[in-house]
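Notebook B, p. 112. Complex prediction, attempt 2.
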Amino acid sequence: MITVDLKSRVPIYEQIVDSVKSAILSGLLGPDEQLPAVRKLAVELAINPNTIQKAYTILEAQSIVYSIPGRGSFVSADTGALADAHHAKLISELKQLLDDAKRSGISKKEILDIVNGYGE
Amino acid sequence: MITVDLKSRVPIYEQIVDSVKSAILSGLLGPDEQLPAVRKLAVELAINPNTIQKAYTILEAQSIVYSIPGRGSFVSADTGALADAHHAKLISELKQLLDDAKRSGISKKEILDIVNGYGE
DNA sequence: TAAGTGTACTATTTGTATTAGTACACTTGT
DNA sequence: ACAAGTGTACTAATACAAATAGTACACTTA
């Protein structure tokens, strides 16, 4: 569920933050569902517990999870804000990509062909 | 022409590499045109000459520039490969973004509206 | 000859992530 | 009451890569 690439340039704790966010966005982790325990996940990923803790602390600061000492860490009840932020981010990235494509002389037709290749 | 963000996470030498590539792709730098001298650019960007040299070495290894000791560094005569690679990269990023958007429940209509907002 | 160019090399510094180790307070289940 | 499992907190040490500092050499151009 939560994975990490030790060789990546992005810090492990950040990968964990992103991984948890993805799990929530994809529905893999539902509201009030418990996250893996700090120590357990550390063993599973073969990294230091402090690194997991750092990730959970960041997630808690962003109101994406809440932690109860002695109990565990859990997904926040309301994940709407997270979904909204992700949505906005995707739109923004798409616009930037289109700008770049236009500057690079990629035709609108080529782009539309690709977009239309995606079902629905 | 070539800019750098000291606060960015991506290494300065890599920013320079990307910056030169962009300048070439946008036509700001034409074939056989001379790049700023290592020492001069170092002064201009207020960074160490070694960092510039590292960037130029990488660009030369990728056949994007060629260097002549005593003369300077110049844009390669044939920049077609660079343009092709950039084109392929954009297409790939677009596909990935569309995948993500689909997974996030963004409607095709919303995407088409954005794409159609880009002239031509 | 002088100035400007790329190239090469080693040592050092710096910043940040990560690890290591320990300790405390709380909750749950027995 | 107890043990096990949980989050939390803190300091020190380690590791690694980027960036800097400093110097030197070979070449080209005016």
